[in-house]
Task: inverse folding
């Protein structure tokens, strides 16, 4: 794909804004078909904020009226991914007991973040928990977990844009890309 410029950095586009929008429509229809009444969307911050914002509007377009809350998690990794642990940096506000919950995250990689979020909401008494990710890096899994809804399978590169960062940069890009040169 075409490399593009962002503040003098070369980013190779992996998924364009148009491809993302189309795929989010597909995922929204899959979620609607799952018939989860009284749905609460829990966006895992920071990375998923752009995806979640587009997804809830796509959910509206297929007839759903989800509530939304945010859970800020941080994964601390050492040299190897297997030493990572997840911490709550900022907790959500709404109660999940007896609710159908859709956890939304940007990338499913080792699986630790999503597994942590799932366990947390299960321990708080959620009725049904479904998970939705923009990108799935399948071969990087350390914990056995799959997302119920996935927009794209992701190549084995570090990606940025569409909410995702590298050292706090590039979240503003409207596409998902790979940093080729800084
Ligand atoms: P996991 O716990 O290993 O599944 O990590 C998932 C989290 O790590 C994601 O929610 C992202 O915040 C972050 N992450 C993993 N891979 C990338 C990447 O390629 N670019 C930006 N963030 C990433
Ligand atoms: Mg994240």
Result:
């Amino acid at each position: 794909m075409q490399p593009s410029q962002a503040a003098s950095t070369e980013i190779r586009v992996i998924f364009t804004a148009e491809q993302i929008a189309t795929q989010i429509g597909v995922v929204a229809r899959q979620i609607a078909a799952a018939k989860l009444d009284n749905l609460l969307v829990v966006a895992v911050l920071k990375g998923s904020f752009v995806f979640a914002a587009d997804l809830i509007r796509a959910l509206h377009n297929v007839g759903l009226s989800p509530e939304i809350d945010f859970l800020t998690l941080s994964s601390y990794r050492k040299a190897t991914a297997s030493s990572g642990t997840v911490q709550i940096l900022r907790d959500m506000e709404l109660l999940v007991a007896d609710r159908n919950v859709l956890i939304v995250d940007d990338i499913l990689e080792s699986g630790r973040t999503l597994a942590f979020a799932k366990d947390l909401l299960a321990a708080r008494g959620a009725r049904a928990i479904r998970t939705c990710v923009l990108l799935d890096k399948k071969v990087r899994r350390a914990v056995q977990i799959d997302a119920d809804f996935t927009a794209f399978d992701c190549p084995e590169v570090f990606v940025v844009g569409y909410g995702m960062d590298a050292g706090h940069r590039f979240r503003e890009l409207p596409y998902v890309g790979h940093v080729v040169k800084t």
User: Anything to note?
Assistant: The first strand starts at residue 3 and ends at 6. The chain is about 25% helix and 35% strand. The mean pLDDT is 92.
